[in-house]
Amino acid sequence: xxxxxxxxxxxxxxxxxxxxxxxxxxxxxxxxxxxxxxxxxxxxxxxxxxxxxxxxxxxxxxxxxxxxxxxxxxxxxxxxxxxxxxxxxxxxxxxxxxxxxxxxxxxxxxxxxxxxxxxxxxxxxxxxxxxxxxxxxxxxxxxxxxxxxxxxxxxxxxxxxxxxxxxxxxxxxxxxxxxxxxxxxxxxxxxxxxxxxxxxxxxxxxxxxxxxxxxxxxxxxxxxxxxxxxxxxxxxxxxxxxxxxxxxxxxxxxxxxxxxxxxxxxxxxxxxxxxxxxxxxxxxxxxxxxxxxxxxxxxxxxxxxxxxxxxxxxxxxxxxxxxxxxxxxxxxxxxxxxxxxxxxxxxxxxxxxxxxxxxxxxxxxxxxxxxxxxxxxxxxxxxxxxxxxxxxxxxxxxxxxxxxxxxxxxxxxxxxxxxxxxxxxxxxxxxxxxxxxxxxxxxxxxxxxxxxxxxxxxxxx
Length: 461
What we know:
There is one protein chain. This protein is of the alpha/beta class. The protein has helices at residues 15-21, 40-45, 51-59, 68-79, 110-128, 141-150, 169-176, 192-204, 206-211, 222-239, 257-267, 284-291, 315-322, 327-340, 347-356, 364-378, 384-396, 415-422, 430-433, 449-459, and strands spanning 3-5, 30-32, 90-93, 96-100, 132-137, 156-163, 183-189, 214-216, 247-252, 275-279, 294-295, 342-343, 357-361, 402-407, 443-446. It is globular and about 55 Å long. It starts with a strand and ends with a helix. One of its GO terms (molecular function) is threonine synthase activity. Its cofactor is pyridoxal 5'-phosphate. It is an enzyme of class 4 (lyase).
């Protein structure tokens, strides 16, 4: 399996090089040249597999440069850190299936990918005798999951940028209470888009990237998307075990990585309906699906902060497929975005988009109402991001389908919003309660690219 760039400027590379490159050296995102096809017969044979064994079946066709026994060990070690034997269990409540993705070390879906990515980094670095300086941006959950995926690992230093005061308090504490010497937190006075743009700018400075051995943990890293593909298959196998019926997934969406993993699963042959793309008020992607309007707007702070994003990095991967894998068309689209603040689409392209996705915007009032009503009716407590997906699913998806809603975080990570919705605090797991009073370490700075660059230079190992 070889990997290519959405912008067409690199020669095909192998999986390990794709993991280490992160963002392609031409500024594009990496994708496999093709997708393995999974037959219905294979799917039925996989029903009894454990999550790690299923992950090996799905991931291994994409990885032909790591011995299968080594890959199996990396996968098993990654998911041994989860606190549920099924890793991503599915529970049924009030006509929807909740795919619980929050049983990892930081209680968010990012752990599913970043525990594996951290182990892949360590494996490849040890093999090559190299070091890596990870640079990432987070709207809340990626940062803590990335930090916990690589803290204390040999050969790795990590720098995470997050918008100062715009994550939940728990999200911030999960990052800034990590005292390992290889961890550096940078709080930026600005938005997540400011953080992400600066990270991309440093990666696009190829001389700087090479000199300081920069690596990516954001979902611009293909390995993260690949790891997330697995739980779509796992959920499908759980909800179709009592008969064959349509399956639809509802995905609360910010940076488009999680829902793109579902798109990849569908391209691999997983039977499903249109993916439901659920947004909060930062709804550039909903405007795109519904109206063909992909135009930038100001970021609005909401009770679902991990979705407070306008410019979704992984959207470029989808565009590459929408444009029939034409890198010239991708480059032209992003030139238009830089010059005009928007991307325009043909009627034929929008017809394809609407065949792939449906979409809904769920505002803060509806989000809080959904947390409250769902809790009263079912006893189940949703976090605000998951509530966006559940509300959209109940409104848009057919009731005769298996409606699978991705639960992206434990409700205790967003305690203020949950308490406002239900009137009582969310139960606090011990790992979160232990954060109170811990020593913190974080550097606050303006959204100044050169200041961030200098900080990295001064703190690389």
